[in-house]
Amino acid sequence: MTNYETFEYDVLVIGAGGAGLRAAIEASAAGVSVGLVCKSLLGKAHTVMAEGGMAAAMGNVDDRDNWKVHFADTMRGGQYVNNWRMAELHAKEAPERVHELESWGAVFDRTKDGRILQRNFGGHRYPRLAHVGDRTGLELIRTLQDHGIHQGITVHMEYTIVALLKDGARIAGAFGYDRERGRFKLFKAKAVVVASGGAGRSYRITSNSWEGTGDGHSLAYHAGAELLDMEFIQFHPTGMVWPPSVMGILVTEGVRGEGGVLRNKDGQRFMFDDIPDNYKNQTSTDPEEGWRYTQGDKNARRPPELLTRDHVARCINREVKEGRGSPHGGVFLDIAWIKEKISNAPEHIKKKLPSMYHQFMQLANLDITKEPMEVGPTTHYIMGGVRVNGDTQMTNVPGLFAAGECAAGLHGANRLGGNSLSDLLVFGKRAGEFAAKFARENSAGSINDADIEAAATEALAPFERGEAVGGSVEGPYQVQRDLQVMMQDLVGIVRREDEMEQALDGLGRLWKRAGQTVVYGHREYNPGWHTALDLKHLLTCAEAITRCAIDRKESRGGHFREDYPEKSAEAAKANSIVWKAADGTMQLRREPIPEMPEHLKQVIEEMK
Ligand SMILES: Cc1cc2nc3c(=O)[nH]c(=O)nc-3n(C[C@H](O)[C@H](O)[C@H](O)COP(=O)(O)OP(=O)(O)OC[C@H]3O[C@@H](n4cnc5c(N)ncnc54)[C@H](O)[C@@H]3O)c2cc1C
Predict the structure, then answer these.
(1) Which of 173, 210, 354, 562 would be 165's cystine partner, CB 3.0–4.6 Å?
(2) Containing H/E element for 20?
(3) What's residue 465's pLDDT?
(4) Can you list the positions of beta strands (E) in 462-526?
(5) Cα 270 to ligand 1 centre (Å)
(6) Does the active-site annotation cover 170?
(7) What pLDDT shows up at residue 468?
(8) How does residue 31 score in pLDDT terms, banded at 50, 70 and 90?
(9) CA proximity to 443, closest of 399, 393, 396
């Protein structure tokens, strides 16, 4: 076997976003050796883009808030297919995790009496999002990074993991390469935490950074882990739609939290026309009351613009489809109108939403303090992911853990805004803690040379094919593009059986083409090679999404079926699970959701 540079750790963490950093800190604090691998530079993970805030029921702005309300909001938002244990732990532990972050140096916005300020967000009954203007992810990453670098964690930046390695059933390490030189690296580890983020890059229009190619979902799946509820994709209602070069970039929900309203081309606030029954008693039908809510009036109900993301995205989709959209295929989001209410509105907007102001000035030459923005849905978040134990975050593969966006369960069919950043902290910590425990209780596994060579051969195959067939073949970019267009068109916001069956056929053809793509040149600085390797992950996620979406014959949260527009009581009782069979095919089953304990049922009843 070739001698690859080899590193040995008790715990290897793949991903340096909020979840990976928090896991690495916790594992290191437990006294085990920790390696942290990430595709980009430390501090550049996708989490850095998070804007609006992290949800934690601290009750600083409204003292009626507590873990029970947060738990009930999360379950209602997720339409009750969530892992209720994760929702309980998250609601209970998020405040402590946010205070801990503060004690490590995070500089949150403040209430007048000096406590952490909390803002309104869709689906949260009370102001709940701890934030730093609209740059909360940056502060979260900065703080964890500052704290983490003093913990003795070894960081491998700009490395890509291409395969997980096992010893029999249990995890034993990972194999990857450094992106600059293209040299292979072997990682031996007693426990591995996958914290690789989302898979939005499977779609054409997305808010996700280039890293969101579903690597962790796919690495875990190919190593024998199960994926849960992959049909649930969140299309965030407000992404930029113009100019084309910036299509999909996120416009934070914070804009609506600060009083921004949605209008169609006729100037109508169309969200008032369609308020779902289960939110009717919490939603205002009067614009004035909605405005008062955004300004902190505890007796007012929230405006319909702050309904859950799945619903708002579908309403926008409807307006556009029925010919009431904006010139570039979106609708209007207006924060400038608040000048009717606030004397220093432009300064107020710039202070509350500094990134949004700059984003639109620089990318669209539009001043949001004066004009409405044009926005439309963008693929934002995947609720589905690696199936984990709610307490420990361990998968069904012993020693393999998952946390953050690549893990599933907490958010059910639809994630509430702000619940991801607190998810990263709560379950990143738990993954680190239990991975360290596993590493202490188990010796290192041994890795088979043949498995290492197989991973290296697979990774180099696009070069080898190039040499074998000469010049008349396909590179990876067209396959990637065709996949993204197909998923957007056929497995998007509104789904139908016949279109998804077409997508499944298309995926068969794309898998074939991906297996024939060629890459030329050297392994150093070769983005074509990186893209060729991403294809396996993108296709694995796309196939899982499509199979689960065909199988769920109802509409729920982020999964809307035109042919089954209602919820089904039967489908509500089960999660979708996919796994890789011995013959390499993707298998699917539906598994009953465990019965919720009485005390949690009562909480939901009380909060209705
Ligand atoms: C624009 C935007 C705004 C958002 N705002 C909010 C918000 O206000 N509140 C909120 O709660 N949520 C928000 N979200 C969602 C939230 O930011 C993400 O869900 C969350 O940051 C994901 O964190 P993570 O730690 O799971 O992964 P990420 O931050 O995506 O990090 C993934 C890490 O894994 C590494 N990685 C991936 N694959 C590999 C591989 N093969 N080998 C090695 N390393 C790998 C990457 O390099 C990276 O370091 C927002 C999302 C977007 C796009």
Answers:
(1) 173
(2) helix 18-29
(3) 84
(4) 494-495
(5) 32
(6) no
(7) 60
(8) very high
(9) 399
Question: Is the backbone of residue 169 left (phi > 0), alpha (psi -120 to 50) or beta?
Answer: alpha
Q: Which residues does residue 374 pair with via DSSP β-bridges, in sequence order?
A: 332
Of 352, 354, 410, residue with least CA distance to 382 = 410
Q: Helices 67-77 & 84-103, crossing angle to 10 degrees?
A: 130
Average pLDDT rounded to a whole number, residues 342-348: 95
* pLDDT confidence of residue 436: 98
pLDDT at 469 over 80: no
Q: Which two tokens stand for residue 72?
A: 């009930």
Q: How far apart are CA 160 and CA 472, in angstroms?
A: 29
By most ligand atoms within 8 Å of CB, the mutation choice from 14, 215, 420 for ligand 1 is 420
User: Quick check: CB of 559 below 6 Å from ligand 1?
Assistant: no
The atom number, within ligand 1, closest to the CA of 176 reads 42
Instruction: Give mean pLDDT, residues 416-444.
Output: 97
**Ramachandran angles phi, psi of 206, nearest 5°:** -150, 150
pLDDT digits (tens, 9 = 90+) for 272-300: 999 998 889 889 999 999 999 999 898 99
The whole-number pLDDT of residue 412 equals: 98
The edge-to-edge listing of strands for the beta sheet with 54-55 is 54-55, 129-130, 118-119
Pick the closest to residue 111 from 95, 88, 90, 127 (CA basis).
127
**Distance from the CA of 83 to the center of ligand 1, in angstroms?**
21
The pLDDT tens digits for 175-189 are: 999 999 999 999 999
